[in-house]
Amino acid sequence: MAHKVHPKIYRTRKLEDWSSRWYHKNPGLFLEEDFKMRSFLEQKLKKVGIEKIEIERSLNKIIIIIFSSRPGIIVGRGGEGIEIIKKDINKILYKVATDNKIKEKDKRELKIEVREVKNPWTSASLTAQWMALQLEKRVGFRRVLKQALSKVCVNKEIQGARVEASGRLDGKEMCRREWLQKGKMPRQNLRANIDYAQAIAKTTYGVIGIKVWLYKGEKFE
Questions:
Q1: In contact, 163 and 212? CB cutoff 8 Å
Q2: CB contact set of 49 (below 8 Å; sequence gap of 6+)
Q3: Which of 37, 86, 153, 180 shows its CA 20 to 30 Å from the CA of 77?
């Protein structure tokens, strides 16, 4: 049987950084908090276009960095959107602490940063989300694959791309996998700077899985 490993884990600390950056004697508590905060933000900001969420911690401070193609919608008028998100996340942190029977002596400061992704077509995550949205709107899967590949390959930064969809495509009884590729895609080379992402499209005839690879050239330390 094949042993499948996420492409990012091989490249962490070489080409990419950790999504959560902190140190604690009880890592299970912080992992639970990070998981619940990410799940909440991905669900709440699903239609805004979230590329990734990074979390940094210090002694009494939590910094959440949200990379989005539409930061203005998240921030809101006068920062109203950020304040609402802060209140909801503080409730999540309080619930995790009470469930684990931990009394917080000092209230931790929560800070949320929103950074703009200028070109969403150079991001595998945002491209996969766009494809999922199109499939949920009942657009033909072949058209979605071709449009996504053409929009991605227009950018000079992208040297190669591969898009894939699998499931009950077009409502067929048998599941199958269809993919398109253009340019270089050296997936075995650990120096290759490949942006990889997955997404799920929930259609009336079942769930369709989407995968996107974007090759951005080799990267040296």
A1: yes
A2: 68, 69, 70, 117, 120, 126, 129
A3: 37
Where exactly are the structural domains of the chain? 7-116, 120-218
CATH number of 7-116: 3.30.300.20
Distance CA 107, CA 101 (A): 16
pTM of the model: 0.84
According to DSSP, the β-strands at 176-183 and 61-68 are unpaired
Please, where are the H alpha helices in the chain?
7-11, 27-44, 71-75, 80-99, 124-136, 141-153
- Which CATH superfamily includes the segment(s) 120-218? Ribosomal protein S3, C-terminal domain (3.30.1140.32)
Q: Which residues have CB under 8 Å from 159's CB, separation 6+? A: 183, 184, 215, 216, 217
Residue 43: HSE in the Cβ half-sphere, 13 Å Cα cutoff:
8
